[in-house]
Amino acid sequence: MELKYIDIIEAIQYSVNKIVKKKYAEDTDTPPIFTVSLLDRTNKDGDLITHEIALTVSHMGYIHTRVIFPQIKYEYGYEPLEREIEWIYNSTM
Q1: pLDDT(75) > 90
Q2: Which end of the chain is more exposed for a tag (fewer CB within 10 A), N or C?
Q3: Residue 1, pLDDT above cutoff 70
Q4: What is the β-pairing status of strands 33-42 and 62-69?
Q5: How many CB atoms lie within 10 A of CB 84?
Q6: Closest by alpha carbon to 12, among 52, 48, 63, 42?
């Protein structure tokens, strides 16, 4: 059996898809579309200085993005991914 390696973005996207499929199954008229992506931060010269993991939702004509990693403000660990999804979903209402 051959191992398939996935990167961290694919792993988070897989989890997001599972949560969204279950949580918003009844939202058939305007289903939300969630995308996990890598957000590069550059300086004024265009040099990469850092990158972050972002979650974007497209829902009801709105598109919102939220950085989910790193979150320096979280002193006692990260919020569950489901709560991040809820927060960004609700921001489109």
Answers
A1: no
A2: N
A3: no
A4: unpaired
A5: 20
A6: 52
Tokens 């579309």 sit at which residue?
33
The tokens describing 78, both together, are: 């990260």
**CA–CA distance, 54 with 40 (Å, rounded to integer):** 10
The amino acid occupying position 87 is W
Q: Is residue 24 exposed (0-12), middle (13-18) or buried (19+ Cβ within 10 Å)?
A: middle
How many Å apart are CA 13 and CA 53, to the nearest integer? 11
Rounded to the nearest 10°, the torsion over CA 18, 93, 86, 57 is: 50
pTM of the predicted structure, to 2 decimals: 0.86
Instruction: Quickly tell me which residue has 């918003």 as its tokens.
Output: 24
